[in-house]
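Let us work through a complete example step by step.
Step 1: write down the sequence.
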Amino acid sequence: MSASLLANNAEALAPALRAGQGLALQPEFLAWRDLQSGALETVMDDWQVEPIALHIVTPPGRSRPARVQALMDYLAERFAAAPWAQASGGLDERSLERN
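Step 2: predict the structure and record it as tokens.
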């Protein structure tokens, strides 16, 4: 199968998808509004890609500065409360683990 439209940017494919011109693997944070409104629909629901983890790396052996811990807490809270995460049933708890 050959594609007539190729892009390495999910946003570039969105107009073609809304026009019904094909299939694409889109990140939830970009497609959730179109899915909620009905402009797009999911297909192949029994197939999924592996989740992508976000890691914050800090030096070992020292306590974290308060500003670093504050950033980690903020990001965990924001990602958990993101509308696209809520619309899909929330984030996997493993993605919010704190060490």
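Step 3: interpret the result. The chain has two domains: 9-49, 50-99.
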